[in-house]
Each structure stands twice: as structure tokens, then as C-alpha cells.
Amino acid sequence: MTRSKRAEERRSQILEHALLVFAHQGYHGASVSDIVKAAGVARGTFYLYFDSKEAVFRELLDELLSTLRSSVRGMDIGPSAAPMQEQLQGILVRILRTAESNRALTRIIFREAVGLDEAVDAKLQGFNDGLQAWLVAALTVGEGLELVRPTDRDVAATCILGAVRQVIDRYVVQSDAPLDAESIAAAVVRFSLEGLA
Amino acid sequence: MTRSKRAEERRSQILEHALLVFAHQGYHGASVSDIVKAAGVARGTFYLYFDSKEAVFRELLDELLSTLRSSVRGMDIGPSAAPMQEQLQGILVRILRTAESNRALTRIIFREAVGLDEAVDAKLQGFNDGLQAWLVAALTVGEGLELVRPTDRDVAATCILGAVRQVIDRYVVQSDAPLDAESIAAAVVRFSLEGLA
Amino acid sequence: MTRSKRAEERRSQILEHALLVFAHQGYHGASVSDIVKAAGVARGTFYLYFDSKEAVFRELLDELLSTLRSSVRGMDIGPSAAPMQEQLQGILVRILRTAESNRALTRIIFREAVGLDEAVDAKLQGFNDGLQAWLVAALTVGEGLELVRPTDRDVAATCILGAVRQVIDRYVVQSDAPLDAESIAAAVVRFSLEGLA
Amino acid sequence: MTRSKRAEERRSQILEHALLVFAHQGYHGASVSDIVKAAGVARGTFYLYFDSKEAVFRELLDELLSTLRSSVRGMDIGPSAAPMQEQLQGILVRILRTAESNRALTRIIFREAVGLDEAVDAKLQGFNDGLQAWLVAALTVGEGLELVRPTDRDVAATCILGAVRQVIDRYVVQSDAPLDAESIAAAVVRFSLEGLA
DNA sequence: AATGAATGAGTGTTCATTCAT
DNA sequence: GATGAATGAACACTCATTCAT
């Protein structure tokens, strides 16, 4: 499988440089020329590994979405779980760290993938909806365990999701500074559980 | 005045159809051809009223941003103000209703104007930053009045902003259904002030 | 005929400003917008008096060509005429002065009307050919009177024509300075009759 | 080298057809479509080899100007040179032959490049000024050697330049017939040196 | 597998001309 | 007669994609 290994490397090489170029210039601002120039391959080679400019973008998108997805998984919403606050904070720290170590990809998701085309939008929407549903389920369980007061769970889930997104946007996408994930996560969780008053 | 009135109508006619086309196809997906076809005018007529495709877009963008801005204004953060909860809820209702009655424009801001070009990005960023700063200021005052517990105000403001954005995205942009602004606003404010626990 | 008088004035008004605009911006660089703006009339008015942008240009061209033509006429090539040298110098002075007092038009003929379109080219060519033929005829007579030595009259006429054109180009079109028509004409005539050696 | 050779051929192919199209239709009359249709290449291919329509034109222009420049060079204006008459005639023959074997290019310079844009005009003007200065210098030397009678050298140079230009225009640009360069050059030189009287 | 020259559909924009008022 | 808003054909140029080598 030497061939396929070399091929895999080629793919990665293109993918990595496409990531940088997209993050830097945006989807529309990045031409296939820019990508192949950055990757050091010929134009034709690009199309040997990817169907289109859009396809390479979609692949990058899937990559981060699945990375983020796995950061979220693993919350124990069963009855005998660890204190919710700790669990939530742990998840949030993982998400923030994932975003931080994939700044370019995160920037793409937050800035470039929005309103791009229907397929991409559907993908982002699906991811969002998954999180929303997961949060609603978690709130339902929490309410059953009386860890969470009765509330409009759909709105509450939406608020949490939005808060986390905005935190990522502000502290990861907009800023280049390193991130104090622990304390930010703690503040977010405290805000969510205890409110401001 | 007849002339300028007719001209104003023409402009609006183009602007309105541009709005629909942008909302439907996105900035890059919408060609000037699409817009003039939708508006039922000739290509040249478009350029009689607008300098460029970008210029129409910017105008639409400015329109909603200033509408939203005026929805936010008017919070009394002085010491003798009405209860914060009520004020916040009032603002939020106004924002939600503004967004609801400008669904296409709101969609554009949330979906199409992101990552478009530097000037547009800067405009959105500025709007965002303005809100963030306003929220931080409001939290500072609230903390002084002991209406708000001590907290990381930057993170808290970010969370609120994100929550509101996501609520608009979910209930206005994603959905076509009419909106129960009052109860959603109430839920958001309650979430923000009291938290979930 | 008050109407036609007013109409005539309108025409002139447009014509004069078109002249300035063409002289300043060139034929292709001048838009109908520029002309009507300069003339202070509406776009439609322009087309009330002229068939097209090209037509107004042609009219300006004809104007100077006929002015120049009449500067040339009147040479007495009969046997009992005044000394040829004096006559030639007189003609040349008239031509130079005509060109000088119509600098803008002259500039147009020398710079803008060249290679414009077939009709205009044909007009310039015809003017040129007329002068060439006239010069050949003059040389033929001069040779008969033994005022001119036998020579290749076609080449000689071409040389004279070229010399005069270049003189106009250099001292009228390229320069804004006032012109010492007498002495330049004298130098040209002396060059033509006696040569340099 | 094969690649660059093929590329060179492609360039020439486009250049040559652009030459014909420009010569036939003029700069403004020739669209990029016309050029690529004539050259039998796709629109994009044109832009692979040239930056713009203007750039091809400039290249063609530079080509003939430098060819003509080298036809002029090499006159020995030192004191021990060959008889001026012979030298002048030789130069003129070279110029005429260069023009003759580049009829399309010459047509472009004489007809299409005039009044095109400032950069092109400046180029032509510079060429002209160079010749004028060279002629004035030659006349100054000739006067010192008493080969040339005292005269207004600026006017004389202008006359010679104009004569040569007009000869090229008449016998090369306007006519398709083959050219008797020798005898025309002889007639021009004789006219210049001995005059007509 | 790798190349990069070639492609051509598509873009935003201009401007001479028309015509309803 | 006068207006200027409206028109739409035409333009130079771009770039994702293909394919002969």
C-alpha cells in the first residue's frame, strides 16, 4: 500500500494548505490557484484528489465538525453521574481546547462556511440541531433529577448553545491570544447555572 | 418632487428585490442579472441607482444594523431606572420584533454577510463590539447597584450576546413561524438572571 | 424664423462644448454624458440636434477641414502670378494662423480623428489627397514655368505636405505658445525651395 | 525548453493575429473576442499570455518602434564620414524597407496609436522627439562642416521628419503596392538638400 | 500519477441611444 | 422642443475545471 500511503500524504498536503488558504482568504477569496500554489502541486493534481474546490472545503468542514462532536460526547446524563457542573465544565474545556488547537478550521466554520451553499448550510445546521437536541435532552434529564429548575427547555438550550458559540467566536476566532479555557468555562457554566442576579 | 419620488420608488423597488435575491441566493450566489430580473428593470437601471452590487448590499446591511441599533438604545442604566428585568425584556422584545419584521434582512446579516469582505466584516464586527461594550457597561452599573453579582463581565456579556443571537437565529432566521416574542424574551431574561439551577 | 435661430444657437452651443470635450478627452474618452454636461443640456436634447456622437464629431471635423481648405485656395498658379515664394509663404501663414486660432479643432484632426472609423478616415484621406493633387498640379505648372526644377512631383508634393503637417503638429498642436507664423512659414518655404545644402 | 518554445509560439500566434486585427479594425474597434477568434484560441488563453488588451497593443507598438529606431541608428555624423547624401539615403531606404515589411504594424503606429491613451501617446511622442533631436544634432554638425547652410534648425528638422513620415504614410500605409525604396529615398534626400527651385 | 496550458461560461460594469412625459 | 430615466448590447476580464502530454 505504498501507493495509497503516498496518495494519502498528497491528499493531506493539499488539505492542510487549503485549510490555511481558506482561513486566510475566505472561501470565495481563495482560488484553486492559491491553494495549489500554497500546496506546491499542479492544478491538475488538485483535481486528482478532490472533485472540486467545494469538495475540499466540505472535507475540512467535516473534519472539525466531527472533532467537535467527539468533544461533546461522553457526558454522562445518567442518574448516577458526576455533578453536572463539573461535567459541563469539562465538556466546555474540551470544546474550547479543540477550537483553540484548530483555530483556522474554527475560523472557517464560524466565518466562511456560513451562507456558502445549501449543502454546507445543511451540514452546519445539522450539527447545530444535534447540539440543540442533545442540550434539550440533558435539560430534561436534569429537570427530572431536580438539578435544573423547570424552564422553557428549548429556549434555554438555545441560549446555552449561543453563549458557547459566542465565547468561541470571541476568545478563539477573533483573538490570537492563548486561552484560559478553565476559567472561561467556569464562568460560562456559572452564568448558565446561577445566572447573573 | 414627482421626479424624486419616482426615483425613490425605483430605488426601493430595486432594493427590495435585491434583498429577496440576496436572502435567497446569498451574496455570491446572486448576480446583478438575478437582481435586475427580479426587480423587472434593465441592467443599466440598476447602475443608475447604485454604484455596484456591493453598494446595494452595504445599503441593506446598514439598514438593518441601524434598525437594530435603535431597538437597543434607550435602556436606562441610571440608578433610578425601572427594574432591570423589565427593561431587558422590553429591549429584547423590540429586537425580536424588529428581526421578525425584517426576516430577509436578518437572514442576510446572520448568513450572508459573514466572511464577505473586509469592509462588511468590519461593519458587523463593529456592531458586535458595540453591543458587547454596551453590555459590559450595563453589567458594571448593575454590579454597582448590587443588582448583579460580581462576575467575569466580559464573559458574561459574551454569553448574553451569544444567547440573543442564537435565539434570533433559531426563532427568526431558521423558522418562518410567527414568534411569541414576549415569552421568548421572558425566558431569555430569566435564564440570564437566574440561571438554570 | 425665431425658432430656427434659437435652434441654431442650441446646435452651436452643443457643438462648441463638444469641441472642447473632444479636444480634452479624445473621441473615445469623451462620453455623450460629458458633452451634454459641458453644454448644459439634457441627454435627449443632444439627439435632437445630432444623430449620434459620431455625427457631431464629423461636423466639427468638416468645419476645420473647410476652414483649412479656404486657407489654401486662392493661390494663383497662372503664368502672370506673383512670385511663387511669396504666394506660398502667404498660404502657409494663413494655414498656420487658422490652425493656431482653432487649436482645439486642429488637435482633434491631428490626434483624435486618426484611425477613428472608416468614414472619418475617408474624409481625412480625401482632404489629404486634395492637397496632394493640388500640390502636384502646382509643381507641374511651376515646372512648366521653369520656376521649379524637374523632379518626382509626387514625392515632392508628399514631402511638402508632410513638412507642413509636422510643422503644424509641432508648433500648434504640441505647443501652447503663440506662434511666429511669418518666420516659420519663411523657413519652411526656404527649406522647400532651396533645400539645406 | 519544449514547453517554453511552445509557449513562445502561442504568444506569437496571438500577437500576430492581434496585429492583423488591430491593423484592420483599429484599437477601439478590435475586441478581445475578435483577437482570440482570429488567433483560434479561447478567451482565457489570451490572458494567459497577456495582461490586457492594452498590453498586447503596447507590445506591438514597442516592437516596431524599436525596429525603426535601429533603422535610424548608425548614421556617422563624425567629420570623416561618408558623404551625407549617401548616408541619409541609406538610412531612409532602411526605414522605408522596415516599414514596408511591417505594413500592418506601421499602419497601427500611423493610424491607430494616435490619441489612444496617455501612455501610448507619450511613447510615440518620445520616439518623435528622439528623432527630432537627432536631426537637429545632425544639422548642427552638418552646419559646422559647411555641408548645410545656416538655417532654423528646429524648423528644418521638423520639415524633414514630416516629409519622411508623410512618405511612409503615402507609399507604405496607404498603398499596398511594392515600394521602390531607392528612388523614393533619393527623391526625398534631393528634395531636402537641394529644394525644388 | 502528475502536470499546467487551455478552456469558455460567467461576471460586474459602461454608455450610446430611445422615448414617455 | 426639452428632458433625463430607462434601456440592453457590448465589453474586458476571471477562474473552476479539463485533458493532452
What would you say this structure looks like, in words?
Four copies of one chain form a homotetramer. Chain A is an all-alpha fold and 197 residues long. The first copy, chain A, folds into two domains: 1-50, Arc Repressor Mutant, subunit A; 57-194, Tetracycline Repressor, domain 2, CATH 1.10.357. Chain A contains nine helices and no strands. Chain A has helices spanning 2-25, 32-39, 43-49, 53-72, 84-100, 103-112, 118-144, 153-173, 181-194. In chain A, α1 (2-25) packs across α2 (32-39), α4 (53-72) runs antiparallel to α5 (84-100) and α5 packs parallel to α8 (153-173). The longest helix of chain A has 27 residues, at 118-144. Chain A starts with a helix and ends with a helix. At the A-B interface, α6, α7, α8 and α9 of A face α6, α7, α8 and α9 of B. Chain A binds a DNA duplex (21 and 21 nucleotides) through α1, α2 and α3.
Protein traits:
homotetramer; 197 residues; mainly alpha; 2 domains; 0% strand; DNA-binding
